[in-house]
Amino acid sequence: MVKITDVARHAGVSPSTVSYALSGKRPISEETRLRVEASIRELGYRPHAGARALASSRSNVLALVIPLRTGIHVPVVMQFAVSVVTTARRHDHDVLLLTQEEGEEGLRRVADTALVDAMIVMDVQLDDPRLPLLRSLDRPSVMIGFPAEADGLTCIDLDFKAAGELCVERLAGLGHRVVALVGSPPEVYVRGTAFAQRVVQGFTAAADRNGLSSSVHPCEAAPAAAMAVAEQLLREQPALTGVVVHNEPLLEPLVDAFEQLGLRVPGDLSITAICPDALAESVRVPVTSVALPTAELGSRAVELLMKKLDGEAVPDATLLAPRLTERASTAPRNAP
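Below the sequence we write its predicted structure tokens.
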């Protein structure tokens, strides 16, 4: 590994002069600076993180804030994390992952140090208690999610309200008149998690607009809960022929549960979902779904943050339009 002393020897200067050339802390002649830079290029020297921070006043580290609260589907969250890390590395940045449910305290602890240059914040609530702090920090931030009041913030997300509407519109277009939403675990709604609430808004709005009978059912992410909610739905809505699922772990168990109760998918019951494409395709009966674009959201959040760090203007709000892919789980309603 090439060291700073190797660069100094090659350029015919002292190690401290190389350090000054990197950090800009003290003036050196233009001729000396160019000679040092030429030696750095020729030897392939890469300054360690501390030296880069001195040169740029940056740590080259981003914080990714993902509180791993109950009700969160960790595999999907990790898809976001992988996308953020991969994109950050393309910009020569590392990522500090913060998973503790610390709220403002965790953000403040990181912001009060030189650990990170900027932050990406996930699991956004409609009335998120972290918002006043995010607005007051001297470090840029991007939220993957939209709080109820997003003024002064940079936010990006899938348009979950439109996603809920799109699932219902597809079922209505196939002639289904009684539909249900099997949603996220109850605690997700209790926290006021923004994306979950907006799916409900879209689902309900589209059902009302199309004159459909509808109901919303939060559900624990467990096979036993899938059977329980399927039994409840058929008991309370015996004419049910369309279901929207916004709870990734329940896709396969729900298909199994309905079929055990005597309903064929899609012959008797059509199912749509909001989830990653790979998951929808892997179910025994591949599910018609609105894609959850984890890779694009993570990547674009980092790109927005890089622009903010460079002083460029970025849009306050970026909503990705939902995209529905038809698969084997939907069919026209069998009219009585």
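The first helix runs from residue 4 to 11.
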